[in-house]
Design the sequence.
């Protein structure tokens, strides 16, 4: 009789390839999997009875902003554990052009303010991917973490947060830093072309950097320059970058947001399908909500952030500069997405403002009406009070577009979770994967269970080079999730965003059970993955 560290018996195995489930037993030993016939003669130190349950590869969250959450104070455990409780065994951070590395030694201190705004605390900056990995190794984690290299972080480190083109010498320095990080194991290059300083970059600058990723066989991952009224133009820019650089293209959290773009997935998705049919390696990810989340400062025109947080603070204190911002939002700025102009302050609610908790959960329009003030003045005073650290939720999409992207055969699942301490973060950080399985698979029948699991596992692993992950087969890494297809559902809401899901019964990372009966066990086998 074979003996293993762990044996999961009697489950319906969805192996991550998109094939229908089949009955099998799954064993783990030394961190690797063995697939056994049902009822095979085997024993283990721990046996999980999975009868009536689905057994899948551990979920891979391809889009997070969880770079530093585990490095924050440890009383934020509820925030840290939200991902693994829902079955996520690997998080991919460094998205939307923003990360914690690389930073030139002479600019580390200058970049700290931006990390506080983005990640909700002083989690530090690291000169390279190796330093980032070593910092996480000192804080044991339940699941694995990989990271892209953020273009905005590269640009801020070399040029500073300024609105001007990079010189040839500066671009070469950015390329060298990127090359080093990718050589050390970073997963690819990301851009956030609506965010400063990324928005200050030309297409040519991004092409040069994406070419470095292409030489490493790693993807170019982009938050498009516009996901609203100019979304099709922005998609074509991404296609141009991929073609000219040779890098595989991955479109982050694909959406057509704002009232002028609703329904345009009927054009963007056929365009992506056409590109794929023509041989281009292009994919996307999506989260299962009609609201997004970002920084309040991103609602302001790009020039307002030119020079970084200190310069923004000076402008916010000036009545004349506030008037300029008001006009820019009302009239638009060429090349700027203009979220408020495409939607309105009534669609922007405060998620996290620690010094002003009374604002959390309320829209900017509501706060302005209550104060008999102009919305822009409310925004300015709130940002000044919070040192620029305000997170918002933007109710900018419609359900039909979300469903179309979810159903696309090349779309995988990413939470876009922004796990900052305090306030009311978007529930996607704690609810994305159970929401897909419960609402969109079981309740709506939009996806089959095997297709949804594939989007969360094998498809994601293939895109980001996670060899031996995202599949259940002999010799694969022993990252698994056991859930009840009949009851799995998200618990997190906009009012109570960290409520745990139901139906996720066991999570295994590296062969160790990290969640049992929906509760963390305290095991910390997770690592930073070098790819």
Sequence:
């Amino acid at each position: 009789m074979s003996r293993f560290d762990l044996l999961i018996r009697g489950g319906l195995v969805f192996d991550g390839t998109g094939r229908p489930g089949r009955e099998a037993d799954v064993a783990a030993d030394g961190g690797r999997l063995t697939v056994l016939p049902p009822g095979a003669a085997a024993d283990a130190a721990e046996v999980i009875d999975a009868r009536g349950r689905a057994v899948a590869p551990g979920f891979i969250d391809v889009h997070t902003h969880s770079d530093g959450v585990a490095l924050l104070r440890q009383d934020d455990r509820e925030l840290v554990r939200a991902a693994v409780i829902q079955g996520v065994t690997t998080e991919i951070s460094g998205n939307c052009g923003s990360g914690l590395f690389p930073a030139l030694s002479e600019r580390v201190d200058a970049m700290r303010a931006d990390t506080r705004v983005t990640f909700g605390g002083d989690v530090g900056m690291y000169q390279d991917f190796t330093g980032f990995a070593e910092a996480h190794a000192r804080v044991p984690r339940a699941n694995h973490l990989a990271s892209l290299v953020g273009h905005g972080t590269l640009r801020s480190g070399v040029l500073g947060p300024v609105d001007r083109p990079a010189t040839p010498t500066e671009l070469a320095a950015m390329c060298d830093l990127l090359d080093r990080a990718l050589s050390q194991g970073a997963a690819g290059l990301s851009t956030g072309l609506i965010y400063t300083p990324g928005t200050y970059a030309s297409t040519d600058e991004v092409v040069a950097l994406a070419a470095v990723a292409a030489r490493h066989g790693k993807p170019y991952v982009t938050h498009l320059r516009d996901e609203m009224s100019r979304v099709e133009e922005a998609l074509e820019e991404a296609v141009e970058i991929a073609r000219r650089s040779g890098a595989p293209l991955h479109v982050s959290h694909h959406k057509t947001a704002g009232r002028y773009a609703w329904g345009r997935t009927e054009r963007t998705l056929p365009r992506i399908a056409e590109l794929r049919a023509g041989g281009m390696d292009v994919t996307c990810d999506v989260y299962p909500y009609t609201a997004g989340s970002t920084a309040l400062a991103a609602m302001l025109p790009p020039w307002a952030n030119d020079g970084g947080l200190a310069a923004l603070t000076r402008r916010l204190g000036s009545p004349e500069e506030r008037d300029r911002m008001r006009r820019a939002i009302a009239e638009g700025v060429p090349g700027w997405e203009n979220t408020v102009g495409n939607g309105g302050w009534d669609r922007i609610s405060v998620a996290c403002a620690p010094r002003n908790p009374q604002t959390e959960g309320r829209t900017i329009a509501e706060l302005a009406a209550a104060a008999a003030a102009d919305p822009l003045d409310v925004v300015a005073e709130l940002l000044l009070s919070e040192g620029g650290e305000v997170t918002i939720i933007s109710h900018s999409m419609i359900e039909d577009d979300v469903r179309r992207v979810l159903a696309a055969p090349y779309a995988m699942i990413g939470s876009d979770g922004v796990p900052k301490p305090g306030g009311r973060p978007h529930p996607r950080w704690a609810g994305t994967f159970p929401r897909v399985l419960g609402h969109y698979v079981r309740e709506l029948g939009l996806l089959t269970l095997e297709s949804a699991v594939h989007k969360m596992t094998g498809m994601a692993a293939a895109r980001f080079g996670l060899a031996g992950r995202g599949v259940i087969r002999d010799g694969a890494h022993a990252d698994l999730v056991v859930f009840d297809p009949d009851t799995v559902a998200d618990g997190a809401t906009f009012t109570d965003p960290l409520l745990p899901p139901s139906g996720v019964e066991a999570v295994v990372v590296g062969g160790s059970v990290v969640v049992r009966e929906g509760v963390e066990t305290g095991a910390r086998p997770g690592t930073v993955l070098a790819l």
